Amino acid sequence: MNIVTTENNGVTVLEIEGRLDGQHAQSAENAFLALAAEGKKNFVLDFERMAYISSAGLRVVLVAAKKVRSLQGKLVCAAMNDQVRDVFEMSGFISILETAETAEEALRRF
Predict the structure, then answer these.
(1) Residue-wise pLDDT tens digits, 81-106
(2) Phi, psi of 89 (to 5 degrees)
(3) Which of 52, 73, 75, 93 gives 88 a disulfide partner, CB atoms 3.0 to 4.6 angstroms apart?
(4) What domains can you pick out in the chain, each with its CATH number?
């Protein structure tokens, strides 16, 4: 897993590449929480290059969503492939998290 972080008009974009699974969940969570500790509160999670997400990865997304809510910010999950979208749908996350077809669309929502 690799995470590339960029800023776009006050929105922090995290491009997650590879597998967000039990092996990588803690480092992904730590990276997100470090950004939130810096005062960032608006995020796009760009899943375009994510190959796989496990239940441990879903937990990271849930931690991020709860943290953003406590900061009164906004989180949009973007560019899910079919496998990732299926996991979000089966877990019920698709109905509780804001999603966008692309990272560009997600950025327009801020």
Answers:
(1) 999 999 999 999 999 999 999 999 99
(2) -70, -45
(3) 93
(4) 2-108 (3.30.750.24)
Distance between CA atoms of residues 64 and 62, nearest Å: 5
- Other C-beta atoms closer than 10 Å to the C-beta of 83 total 12
- Which pLDDT tens digit goes with each residue over 13-72? 999 999 999 999 999 999 999 999 999 999 999 999 999 999 999 999 999 999 999 999
Residue 65, CA distances (Å) to 17, 44 in order: 19, 11
> What does R_g of the chain's alpha carbons equal in angstroms?
12
How many CB atoms are located within 10 Å of the residue 67 CB?
19
